[in-house]
Amino acid sequence: GETVQVDLSKRADGVNKVLLHDAVVMYQANLRVGTAKTKSRAEVSGCGKKMYKQKGTGNARMGNKRTPVRRGGGHCFAKRPKDWGYRLPAKALRLATRMAILSKFEDNEVTVVDAIKIESPKTSVIHRMVKTLGFVDRSCMIAIDRHDPVVWKSCRNIPRLSVSPCDDLNAHTVLARKQFVITKAALDRLLAR
User: Fold this and answer.
1) Cα angle vertex 90, ends 143, 149, to 5°?
2) What contacts 16, CB < 8 A, 6 or more positions away?
3) Share of the chain above pLDDT 90, in %
4) CA–CA separation, 44 vs 5, rounded Å?
5) Of 105, 148, 166, 173, whose CB count within 10 A is highest?
6) Distances (CA, A) of 123 to 127, 144, 166
7) Residue 113: pLDDT band by 50, 70, 90 thresholds?
8) DSSP class of residue 75?
9) What angle do CA 123, 138, 179 make, to 5 degrees?
């Protein structure tokens, strides 16, 4: 195939690894569901009656049977559902996306294809394309011009292969896959933004 010359100097001055790391950590934190929950001593079933009188039995003093030190008691510091999500500034995230794409070009991990045209959903067509490009053993992200249900349905059953409209790319999705395949229309759209 032919070589495509792309000037990305206006898009990002260089690759800032700290910013890329911060962006990826943010996206991963936002994926956390945070639904872990355990019961405290107030929530476990059982009455709160004092087990036996304070003095005279010879045993250690004991109150509620659901105290954390007893079997069947509640947790001392019970887990609560938590929202781990947060947002970095939008300008920083946009810059991180451009840097992630630039890093792919710098590492020679980008392949530009003319177009991906499929009449009906067919996984074998995409698999043949990936095999021809030599990326069967590598994870791959395919960036297309705009959302195409046929291409998406053709890609969804192939492990370690993702497809995304170029407008939906972010630093995490770009860096999560080893090889970056982009159509010419998608590349022109990225450069025009």
Assistant:
1) 25
2) 95, 99
3) 81
4) 66
5) 166
6) 6, 16, 21
7) very high
8) B
9) 90
Residue 135 burial class via C-beta count within 10 angstroms: exposed 0-12, middle 13-18, buried 19 and up: buried
The residue type of 77 is F
- C-alpha distances in angstroms, 47 versus 33, 44, 71, 121? 33, 9, 14, 61
Phi, psi of 179 (to 5 degrees): -105, 140
What sign has the CA pseudo-torsion 59, 63, 69, 71?
A: positive
Q: Contacts from 144-152 at CB under 8 Å and sequence distance 24+?
A: 144/116, 144/182, 144/183, 144/185, 144/186, 145/183, 145/185, 145/186, 145/189, 148/116, 149/121, 150/118, 150/119, 150/120, 150/121, 151/116, 151/118, 151/126
- Number of neighbouring beta carbons within 10 Å of residue 85: 12
Exposed (0-12), middle (13-18) or buried (19+): which is 120, by Cβ within 10 Å?
exposed
Residue-by-residue DSSP string for 84-141: ------HHHHHHHHHHHHHHHHHTT-EEEES----SS--HHHHHHHHHHHT-TTS-EE
